[in-house]
């Protein structure tokens, strides 16, 4: 086992609404959606038409650049609607679910008897290949590549994140099967990072055929990108793959049962969640299914697929993302506060910079909303980003290089090592209210275009 890597920088946002460890209900959605927008760089090719019948595991989309990469339906039913946006961009394939679910039978397989090519073929045909995220750039892994190593973060420090110990308490056999399979896809082994605060309480510490690493510290210590930075920094020309425990469970179920099963425990969290807890749901389910969790009118609540830092605002009629097992309900901050800057004593607000007196109550949780309490302005040169980013890069210079579209400087300042989630806290504490994640996303897209 590796030594404990203690990260000194970071921030745990004290937001209220942690899900209690109980499953409130089982959700059988009426409509689910397959969303190409869940995957960076995907050029989708539609394989179905409205009115077509599909089974759980039937191909719905393919990647034009890699036609063998398929995206399959999480339920059996009828293709109800194909939603397009500007310039006919494909946004969603909506499927009306059957009352009784039927699955494509891919056949249960004994992983130990399969070769790497057979495992890869099974994952491609089932639609589970998009579970692998390739760094740099955070794109779907190239099926023709062999990564330096595969990394898994077995804990999350994101705000109100689902508890791995609860969410995967019944999935460890499937996760072990998945680990046994993916070890054949790389020569560098599978690396699993654990939280030192709960090492013995994590079921992941019993996994076999992996290399363990232990991390301690505040968010973003649980981000797999931060962990890779400290374990095996990505150099130009290198690729690594990452996969989440959520996707490992689905991969394991594929080999153990022969079914494409995207069911999952989903944490419904946030300050505006009534009785925040877990639901048994499925990838692509509609937010209407958890409307009864809202404290107030749905029109005043932001429905976020994921956490408040990096999740997607999908709206009250939107759909859960492919990679998400958390929904955050937070009040829209559309109110104006007169002379807010002149009120230093505000006990209901949290301040990282000690502008308010929240530092006197370190254990207090705050009912936050989406209000920025200010507007965008010019960069303020300070070390505030460095206080929350436990990586040896210069975030201000990286963001400026992205703004300028300077590829050489983006490489110099660490573009290969980061994704938006790694700099999300920099955006949260930014005194200039700069949309750092959006700027970084544009920089990554430019790199993909110019370095292809």
Automatic annotation (TrEMBL):
GO terms for biological process: sodium ion transport. It catalyses: a ubiquinone + n Na(+)(in) + NADH + H(+) = a ubiquinol + n Na(+)(out) + NAD(+). One of its GO terms (molecular function) is oxidoreductase activity, acting on NAD(P)H, quinone or similar compound as acceptor. Its EC number is 7.2.1.1. Residues 266-314 form the Na(+)-translocating NADH-quinone reductase subunit A C-terminal domain. It comes from the Bacteria. Keywords: Ion transport, NAD, Sodium, Sodium transport, Translocase, Transport, Ubiquinone. Residues 115-259 form the NqrA second alpha/beta domain. Residues 5-98 form the NqrA N-terminal barrel-sandwich hybrid domain. It is an enzyme of class 7 (translocase). Belongs to the NqrA family. NCBIfam families: nqrA (TIGR01936), PRK05352.1-4 (NF003761). Composed of six subunits; NqrA, NqrB, NqrC, NqrD, NqrE and NqrF. HAMAP family: NqrA. PANTHER family: NA(+)-TRANSLOCATING NADH-QUINONE REDUCTASE SUBUNIT A (PTHR37839). NQR complex catalyzes the reduction of ubiquinone-1 to ubiquinol by two successive reactions, coupled with the transport of Na(+) ions from the cytoplasm to the periplasm. NqrA to NqrE are probably involved in the second step, the conversion of ubisemiquinone to ubiquinol. This is Na(+)-translocating NADH-quinone reductase subunit A. The gene is nqrA.
